[in-house]
Amino acid sequence: MNNRYPLLCFALLTVATITAQPGTLDPSFGTNGKAIANVPGTYCSGQAIAEQADGKLLVCGQTPGSTLLVRFNTDGSLDGTFGSNGLVLTDVDVSNDYIGSIAVQPDGRIVVGGNKFDALANADVIVMRYLPDGTLDDSFSGDGIADFSIGTWATYATGLVLQPDGRIVICGDRYVGPGWESFLTRFNTNGSWDSGFGTVQLDMAATSSDNLHDIALQSDGKILVCGTSLDASDNHVAIARYNADGTIDTGFGTGGKLMLSPGGSGDDRANSLRVQPDGRILVTGISGDGNDFGIGVLRLMPDGTSDASFGSGGFALIPFGGDDWTQPSLALQSDGRIVIGADNTSASTPDVKVIRLNADGTLDSGFGTNGIGTSNATSGNNAESAVRTLFLHDGGIVVAGYAEASNPSIQLAVWKFLSGVNVGLAEQARQPDQLALAPNPAQDRLVIRGAHIQRGGSIAVHDQSGRHLSVPTVINTDHALVDVSALAPGSYTITVRNADGIIAQRFIKE
Prior knowledge:
510 residues, mainly beta, Neuraminidase, Immunoglobulin-like, 2 domains, 4-stranded antiparallel beta sheet
């Protein structure tokens, strides 16, 4: 009988070892940390990823002739309650259609942005809204699909963000010959084009050709965009900030805009940006310092000036070291560390990389190997590519993209990495009938645990005046998820009511 105890100790040590290896793939997700989706008879790819309030993952992308939307369960299996076996294909126009941006409304409806192409390859912007089961929402533009063009043969959507009132802001580019011009536009909640917002054109400089790659919303409602601006010979990081109504924010940078060359090589590009809870702005892309190219990360103060406490004068460079990494995308952990997903295209077997930086811009040596985790693609027929990165509310890091295979040739893929971050499921010491809220302060979703939750009942959120607020809530057997993304920053009260009585606790929305 005593033989049980060494086995138990070994099992406990094994679990501790698994959970103590940040930067490795999560074996509980998909197959050895990788989940895939196939469209029978053809290829498909993932371009953006979002998490629902219940933890399920939505990935949007494309397959020949159609847009593609996929939903995975929390374990990486396809969600059979969504579309057809977890997949939704939408044929918008006669040629290849594409969606590359996604957001989830507080009511669970799904908004995606992308492009449709006609037989002559003319491109128009499309915005589509789906119901939670994957069917098109016909209360949006009549059939679930809204489109937009600025009178040119090529108008592309490159990013999407939801404002607190539900309106949808799109950033993108249009060809004006001989270069490109960037723009912002907005759709109302019913799918109509918002003529009051109009089309906001962005010219970084009089002679530049500009492309936007990402968009983010600050807690005060201001809109940030980033991309690349090409002047006569050099590429520069381009960043601009707008007020919620689309007017340029002249309190940011120079007249609301920044053109930066942090690497000093004349070839700096911005791919992704995020706003920290303290208002500082992170931007990542490809940069060089004249000797080596790599993934560059900028951190700016809220007014657009460099944050001298980050990296070297506000800039950190992770050298390629002879490799060629592409498509870096940012995610913020709840503990302030910074995650960047990318792929290594020059390796004999390209694979997905995840880099983690400390809050000061230094590589986190406790993550992966010297701060870099890898998907460990194993053969030349298994090349993998990363497109978007997300930090989950269970503490995991997911990267969406695509992977080569034998049949079909390219599959939509999601990789999940361990972060080692305690997301707070037991962060707060509490009495048996107290609630544990995490993270607190919260930015978008709040996890609630406690004996009161386990005994069922209802959850309510009230503001400081006592007004009841309607927020999406999912109650599971041992915890609840509350979507607080639409709440204004401030102090709120969570109330749990069941047959045993009522218990309440405060939380802060950032």
